[in-house]
Specification:
Length: about 170
């Protein structure tokens, strides 16, 4: 499993855009960290992201070359003519008593139809559109017990597509 701390990367970029330390309000000063992507020191709630879905990360290097395709936001694995499709999204976990959520960059598997729709609207997102999927990463410190069914909601800001993966039962208390 590869989890990296980050400030603005992949699907998290549009979520973080426009947010300042002041916008983080009560989280500023609580955390200070050095971003593994940009190398800069930040204050506020850090975010963490998985580099790939578990299914891809579990493949050997040879299998990845033969069966997988991975970009910053999309992944496919083809086995015996069957294709598994994944998208990177953002899982916002509310923190009781905090204005902003804790954010994970996670991967979700989608059906062929949902994946095709997501890819076709990637450059012109449809705000409010949703997709059903399955969480494809295990979050450290959270109880296992998946697979977890998730709803992925498209939030459009200009031409930037931000996804929010919702699992109501996950809340930091």
């Amino acid at each position: 499993m590869c989890v990296t701390s980050l400030c603005t990367r992949g699907a998290l970029d549009s979520w973080a855009r426009g947010r300042s330390t002041a916008a983080l309000g009560d989280m500023a000063g609580v955390f200070a960290y050095t971003c593994s992507c940009c190398g800069k020191r930040h204050e506020g709630s850090p975010s963490f992201a998985f580099d790939a879905p578990h299914q891809y990360a579990s493949l050997s290097d040879e299998q990845k070359l033969a069966m997988g395709e991975l970009s910053s936001d999309l992944c496919t694995i083809t086995r015996d003519g069957e294709v598994d499709r994944f998208i990177r999204t953002v899982l916002e976990i509310p923190i009781v008593g905090a204005q902003d959520p804790f954010v994970w960059g996670v991967w979700v598997s989608l059906s062929e139809k949902s994946y095709a729709r997501y890819v076709s609207t990637y450059d012109n997102p449809v705000a409010g559109e949703g997709f059903f999927g399955w969480l494809c990463n295990t979050l450290p410190v959270y109880p296992s017990g998946g697979p977890f069914a998730v709803d992925v909601l498209v939030k459009a800001t200009g031409n930037v597509q931000s996804l929010c993966c919702m699992i109501p039962s996950l809340c930091i208390r």
